[in-house]
Amino acid sequence: MRIEAVLFDLDETLHARTRSLAAFARRIYVDALPGIAGQTSEEDFVEAVLRGDERGNRPPEGLLTWLANRFDLGLTAADLVEVYLAWEHPVLFDDAEETLRRLRPRRLGIVTNGSERSQAAKIANSGLDRWTDAVAISGALDMRKPEPGIFEDICRRLEVAPASCFMVGDAPEHDVAGGRAAGMRTIWVERGPWPSGLARDYDASVARLSEVVPIVERWDRE
Question: What are the residue ranges spanned by the domains of the chain?
């Protein structure tokens, strides 16, 4: 079957969210010197931020409010949100852009949960907008993965059928199960453990994004 489009999750699939958050935390720590040095070390501060993020389960606004209350940074929660949204250096996984380049001329899209402001800023500041033909952000659509509607929305805008798409992501429930329920082929990116009790219902799994390309090409030939 001809694969017309490949859709990607954003955080921890294309965007190395944990690395980006650590870099952001280091910047905040340095900007808050010298006052914060008496409160905690840089490494402990970064570790506290990563723990407070709860593996991406805490919205950025909630994380930054917690951070402003936890440490005396000389910044309010609103200040931190503005700094976060203006953060110009989101870190992509090393093979992200090369993978997207090799998948052309197929249509490419991003399907991500999160606020419209923060996710759109990551996509623009990382340069991913140069590679994508459409983006579906839950905060803009009032629906989120694994709901079928968010996958159907991007398919309409790409003018492709779900059956001719691959959904690629690291989240078993949201990306793999959600994409499958919407009628797509799915590829799980192994960034963490598979949840116990959830059926391993995917077409392929990969350790690196670059491995997606030969899988898609093989399906094109079958």
Answer: 5-16+92-221, 17-85
Q: How far apart are CA 139 and CA 27, in angstroms?
A: 27
CATH topology of domain 5-16+92-221: Rossmann fold (3.40.50)
For residue 206, give both structure tokens: 């990969």
Both tokens assigned to 98: 């090369």
Q: What is the pLDDT of residues 108-152, one digit of tens each?
A: 999 999 889 889 989 999 999 999 999 999 999 999 999 999 999
| Rounded CA separation 208/96 (Å) | 9
Assigned token pair, 32: 């808050």
Query: What is d(CA 158, CA 179) in angstroms, rounded to the nearest whole number?
Result: 16
Would you state the structure tokens that stand for residue 97, as one six-digit string? Answer: 């852009």
Convert the pLDDT of each residue in 50-90 to its tens digit.
999 987 778 888 899 999 999 988 888 888 888 877 776 78
What is the phi/psi pair of residue 112, to 5°? -140, 140
At residue 137, φ and ψ (nearest 5 deg) are: -115, 125
Rounded Cα distance between 164 and 182, Å, is 11
